[in-house]
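Side project, low priority. Logging it here so it doesn't get lost.
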Amino acid sequence: MVRIFDEEGLNEPASTVDVLQTIVAAEPNNASYYGFLAAYAYLAHKNALGDLAAHKAVALAPVGQRTHLKVQLAEVKKQANAKKGATGATGTTAGAGGTTSLVAP
């Protein structure tokens, strides 16, 4: 389902966030899922949710991967916010293109 709503599919990051929230609820100890949730929340301009998911992803990630994951998610947030500013989007669920290159912890 995530692939249907991501940038290569319908490009609806807010819908991807909904799917990922269901997945995270079923697998609450999976750092990868929280990382993807954070990234798509940022792309959907839901920064508060993205920050919470990013924090959880980093906390669950293996110690040696935490810094890298934190940097990656910060970059996704930065790019999503820059894209939002460039397009003049103001809604919290406005679509955003771009790529998400998260490496699963």
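Brief comment: The first helix runs from residue 2 to 5.
Revisit when time allows.
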